[in-house]
Design brief:
heterodimer, A: about 280 residues, mainly alpha, MetI-like fold, B: alpha/beta, four-stranded antiparallel beta sheet, 10 helices
């Protein structure tokens, strides 16, 4: 006997194009137009009145710096996230030594400045490695005597700790009943994790993840203090050789704003693909 | 199917020795106050006041909750349990439990659908990933089941966009998809708005008509009386009285049951 379905409460509707147009038309109000004009005037004035002749000559170096910034960001986010999963899981579900370790790690890393960690890794660990001839003679020394591995390690460790804490909350926040249903249908623990717990936790963590990645982007300039040539380090060089203060910094502002903007739009797109 | 016996629970999780009525302690084990048997095709309604252990009893059958003592057998196969350090029983053979669970469907009070999957994906999840069914076949069967519970047109929706009644019907389709030996209903209509209760009860009644084995914890007394072949009244974690519905509702013996029936009627 099929049950009739008299009143559907809601149905899935994709936001249509017209709605996007409506959103744009909201920008066309007088006070917004005035602000927009002021902003454009400001940019034009900066281009006209300030000194930008250094820019073309430094473009290749800036491009390299940008690449280094992006490599630092992407690699530390990806690897850090891989470490964040066990860190979060251990805090929620681990046996006590693991839980204790994971909580301790997250607390210590989140409780100390990233700059300090960076220097401890570079000046501390880096100097320590140099004292062992075995390491100095090994293939690894080619990498270990450079600065970027320490920048990468510090950024990764930091991201793992912050994200581990977020994943802890995300894992703990998945309603127990959903996991229980999976269990009641005879799923193994691994299946429950792969099919229900992890995807649900990931979806719940996505909005916070976006914020963390933006924060991570803005942490990357710290690696300039250990001689990694990222975008910020290149701009510092420009300032020292051209004796200009504001132009390179304004350029840096523009680049970071663009990067943040792209990240926000991209990550929001990913977030919106979660359909419920 | 072979064994006449589908489920048997013997011993109560919530039964705390100190709070047991003195008379109950003297009863030998295996007496009707401590055990419950559902045969193939039985529809067992479990009733009782709040906190009487109805849900606990039901959840002991698929070991979502571990009994403190006693045993549970499904089709003659007894769960292997061992005593844990703090005196409770714990699962000794996880694989056995998973194998048996895969053939017991459970419908929860709060539906517990997986919100990151569509209605159809919810229904095919267990057949594909636990029972190893082919995807095409699972989808084909699922579509038939969704038609049957009146949700054929909603198969691509996400549960959070549906009413409680629709979600619970999806949950029932999800259970039917594993072709269960027995279905455990844990207060399937308690979280629903009053006007949505009917559509879910209609589906359950439909299943009752084809003599599926079901154990049903419910507060819908009229429905229990109507549909059940056997009624169990629980009080303080033990079975106070059990029997056919006519006897339980028409001629209750225990004063507690009398009082309970007059208070809910």
């Amino acid at each position: 006997m099929p049950v009739s379905d008299p009143h559907p409460i809601a149905s899935l509707v994709r936001p249509s194009r017209t709605r996007t147009l409506n959103k744009l038309s909201g920008l066309l109000e007088p006070h917004r137009l005035i602000l927009l004009a002021l902003f454009i005037a400001g940019v034009l004035a900066a281009i006209q009145l300030m000194e930008w002749s250094w820019l073309p000559g430094y473009l290749p170096k800036l491009w390299e710096g940008l690449q280094m910034t992006l490599i630092m960001l992407v690699s530390s986010v990806v690897v850090g996230f891989l470490f964040a999963l066990p860190l979060g899981l251990a805090q929620v579900n681990g046996i006590w030594p693991l839980r204790w370790l994971a909580t301790g790690f997250c607390t210590v890393i989140r409780g100390t400045p990233l700059l300090l960690q960076l220097w401890l890794f570079y000046f501390g660990l880096g100097a320590l490695f140099g004292q062992f001839p075995e390491i100095r003679d090994s293939w690894a020394w080619d990498y270990l005597r450079q600065a970027w591995p320490y920048g990468f390690i510090a950024l990764t460790v930091s991201f793992a700790a912050y994200q581990g804490e977020i994943m802890r909350g995300a894992f703990a926040g998945v309603p127990h009943g959903e996991l229980e249903a999976a269990e009641a249908f005879g799923m193994s623990r691994r299946k429950v994790f792969c099919r229900v717990w992890f995807p649900r936790a990931l979806h719940r963590a996505l909005p916070t993840l976006t914020g963390e990645i933006i924060l991570q982007l803005k942490s990357t300039p710290l690696v300039a203090t250990i001689t990694v040539m990222d975008l910020y380090a290149v701009i510092t060089q420009v300032r020292q050789t051209t004796y200009l203060t504001y132009e390179p910094l304004l350029f840096l502002v523009a680049v970071y704003l663009c990067l943040s903007g792209i990240l926000i739009v991209g990550l929001r797109w990913v977030e919106n693909r979660v359909p419920y | 199917m072979g064994a006449p016996r589908d489920e048997r629970t013997n011993g109560k999780r919530t039964c705390n020795r100190d709070t047991r009525p003195a008379q109950a302690i003297r009863l030998p084990r295996g007496s009707e106050r401590y055990s419950l048997t559902a045969n193939q095709g039985d529809i067992v309604a479990i009733i009782g006041g709040s906190g009487s252990g109805k849900s606990t009893l039901l959840r002991c059958i698929n070991l979502l909750e571990r009994p403190t003592s006693g045993e549970v057998a499904i089709q003659g196969e007894t769960y292997r349990l061992r005593s844990a350090r703090h005196g409770d029983l714990e699962i000794a053979d996880r694989r056995q439990v998973q194998r048996i669970r895969a053939h017991l469907g459970m419908v929860f009070q709060n539906f517990n659908l997986w919100p990151h999957r569509t209605v159809l994906e919810n229904v095919i999840e267990v057949p594909i990933h636990v029972l190893g069914m082919k995807r095409d076949e699972a989808i084909h069967r699922a579509e038939g089941l969704l038609d049957r519970v009146g949700l054929g047109s909603k198969k691509d929706m996400y549960p959070s966009f549906m009413s409680g009644g629709q979600q619970q019907r999806t949950a029932i389709a999800r259970v039917l998809a594993v072709d269960p030996l027995a279905i455990l209903f844990d207060e399937p209509t308690s979280a629903l708005d009053p006007e949505l209760v009917g559509e879910v009860l209609a589906v359950i009644r439909d299943l009752a008509a084809e003599h599926r084995t079901m154990l049903l914890v419910t507060h819908e007394m009229a429905f229990a009386r109507d549909v059940a072949s056997h009624v169990v009244f629980l009080r303080e974690g033990i079975i106070e009285e059990q029997g056919p519905p006519e006897q339980i509702f028409g001629d209750p013996r225990s004063p507690h049951l009398k009082q309970f029936i007059s208070s809910v009627a």
